[in-house]
Amino acid sequence: MQRRVLLRRLGVVGAAALAGCASNGPSDGGAGTERTPTRPPRVTDTTFTVSNRQSGTQVDDATVRFGDERVVVDGTIWGADGCTTAALTSAEYDDAADELTVAVATTRETDAEMCTQAIVEIDYEATVAFENGLPGRVVVTHDHGDGPREVAAVDR
Asked: Are 82 and 120 in contact (CB under 8 A)?
């Protein structure tokens, strides 16, 4: 009779011990599950072209387009005279803010001998290629030699 009681008790203890093995997930609230961390977007390439320079006014403008793994900025920055052109000074992605800053500045053409004394509007296109997605926000700044100023801020 004692053998039956002992076997019954062992059966209950054994079933309880095996119950954790048959569950669908970890019993520690999910701490044992492995997740693949997502990688933040990363800049892989930049291109910059000046498409037009003409006499004009002090225009600072930019539009942002989000494409397939790239951000395109079409803008106009002004220069003090006919020897002024535009250059991409940086295209930096801040992972913590999920923000790309595209900085464009005016610069002097080094091979220019004579310059018109009129303000010029300089049209440009900057393209920033990414992998692992696109930034959530793009800020465009222009610098005329007196420090950068924000001209556009666009959320995706």
From this structure: yes
CA pair distance 28, 67, nearest whole angstrom: 43
Answer whether 0.70 is exceeded by the pTM: yes
Q: What is the pLDDT of residue 33?
A: 53
Half-sphere exposure at residue 131, Cβ-oriented, CA atoms within 13 angstroms: 3
Residue 97 to residue 155: CA distance in whole angstroms: 12
Tokens of 36: 């693949």
Q: How far apart are CA 62 and CA 102, in angstroms?
A: 10
Is pLDDT above 60 for 97?
Answer: yes
The shares of helix, strand and coil residues in the chain, as percent rounded to the nearest 5, are 10, 50, 40
- Residue 89: exposure state from Cβ atoms within 10 A (0-12, 13-18, ≥19): middle
Count of C-beta atoms within a 10 Å radius of residue 123: 18
- Give, in degrees to the nearest 5, the angle at Cα 121 between 115 and 123: 120
31 has a pLDDT exceeding 80: no
Whole-number percent of the chain with pLDDT over 70? 75
pLDDT of residue 38: 83
